[in-house]
């Protein structure tokens, strides 16, 4: 059994990542910690709790952490993920309450209690983890491993011309996290799923139809570019309907941005990496983050050639298999959805 501690800012692709990990029988979701990013941290927690309950997984701890970045003001992105962060999906308010523990306490206490057993997965800004490192500098050695969704290296940003969203929200936190890993053995360095790998995971209408088929939905799940914006799923399967309504919003957003009727599932790819369920390759690099320049704030820079004379502090994903990853997501989440269908 693989234990994963997940830190999220639950928007649409975080939601799919959470559901995917819940669908894997060999993965134990140790806890979910929440940071402000796509929406505010309290809404992140509500989204996460509601998804757990939708998937029949009550009892997993959900803790609220940083509600603002370390240094700069918080910027959220409801235009990308919807007013509540999960697109057009509407979930009942959760029954379970958020944890009494702060997210930083969860990271530190769980890592100390289970040294070498927990894989960290961070799909939002790195604020909580940076604060946890200040409390416990040994976290990189206490964790089994760390997977980060963030950054872009010699690749266009999706928030500014050079910066990726998670890093841009809190570049100071990202800078502290990468600095904390400098000089560690290569197998302890974080695996970084940056835009050049995550934007290859393009969820399209046919994938939602395949998800419905995998869930055993009798009518095809059709989310099509010629349909009116905001159309809601009529699926009788609650998980299929939720994901379909969430992803439709994401598809429409990407189309408005001139990227076509596709949805980049950044965080779901990172979840597959953390679960060890999709092939990928990495390159070691020394990573730093620009925090001072108004023009380049949030830009991640990778030195692959040792020009800075500093040891590597990250393993950046250099190759992946989008078709394999999407097949993995659809088959596994579809099986979970089928198991939850109470019709």
Feature tags:
343 residues, two-stranded antiparallel sheet, 9-stranded mixed beta sheet, alpha/beta, globular
**Largest sheet strand order:** 3-2-1-4-5-6-11-9-10
End-to-end separation: 31 Å
Number of helices: 13
Query: Strand tally, please?
Result: 11
Main structural class: alpha/beta
Which SSEs are present, and which pair or pack?
Blueprint: E1 2-8, H1 12-23, E2 27-34, H2 41-54, E3 62-64, H3 78-81, H4 103-113, E4 118-122, H5 127-135, H6 139-142, E5 145-149, H7 165-169, H8 171-180, E6 191-193, H9 195-198, E7 202-203, H10 205-214, H11 238-256, E8 263-264, H12 266-275, E9 280-289, E10 300-303, E11 314-320, H13 322-340
Parallel strand pairs: 1-2, 1-4, 2-3, 4-5, 5-6, 6-11
Antiparallel strand pairs: 7-8, 9-10, 9-11
Helix pairs in contact: 1-2, 1-11, 1-12, 1-13, 4-5, 5-8, 10-13
């Amino acid at each position: 059994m693989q234990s994963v501690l997940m830190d999220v800012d639950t928007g649409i692709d975080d939601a799919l990542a959470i559901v995917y990990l819940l669908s894997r029988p060999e993965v134990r979701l140790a806890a979910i910690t929440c940071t402000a990013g796509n929406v505010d941290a309290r809404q992140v927690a509500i989204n996460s709790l509601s998804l757990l309950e939708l998937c029949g997984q009550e009892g997993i701890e959900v803790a609220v952490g940083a509600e603002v970045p370390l240094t700069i003001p918080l910027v959220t992105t409801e235009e990308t993920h919807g007013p509540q962060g999960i697109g057009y999906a509407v979930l009942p308010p959760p029954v379970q309450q958020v944890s009494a523990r702060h997210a930083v306490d969860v990271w530190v206490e769980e890592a100390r209690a289970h040294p070498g057993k927990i894989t960290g997965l961070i799909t939002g800004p790195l604020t909580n983890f940076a604060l946890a490192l200040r409390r416990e500098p040994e976290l990189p050695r206490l964790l089994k491993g760390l997977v980060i969704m963030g950054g872009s290296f010699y690749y266009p940003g999706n928030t500014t011309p050079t910066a990726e969203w998670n890093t841009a929200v809190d570049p100071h936190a990202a800078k502290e996290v990468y600095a904390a890993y400098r000089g560690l053995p290569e197998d302890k360095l974080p695996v970084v799923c940056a835009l050049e790998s995550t934007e290859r995971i393009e969820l399209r209408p046919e994938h939602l139809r395949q998800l419905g088929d995998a869930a055993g939905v009798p009518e095809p799940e059709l989310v099509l570019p010629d349909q009116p914006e905001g159309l809601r799923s009529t699926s009788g399967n609650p998980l299929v309907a939720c994901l379909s309504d969430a992803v439709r919003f994401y598809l429409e957003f990407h189309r408005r941005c001139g990227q076509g009727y596709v949805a980049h599932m950044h965080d779901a790819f990172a979840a597959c990496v953390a679960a060890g369920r999709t092939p990928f390759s990495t390159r070691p690099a020394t990573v730093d983050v620009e925090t001072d320049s108004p023009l380049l704030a949030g830009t991640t820079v990778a030195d692959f050639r040792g020009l800075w004379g500093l040891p590597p502090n990250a393993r950046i994903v250099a190759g992946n298999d989008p078709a394999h990853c999407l097949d993995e997501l659809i088959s596994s989440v579809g099986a979970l959805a089928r198991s939850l269908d109470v019709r």
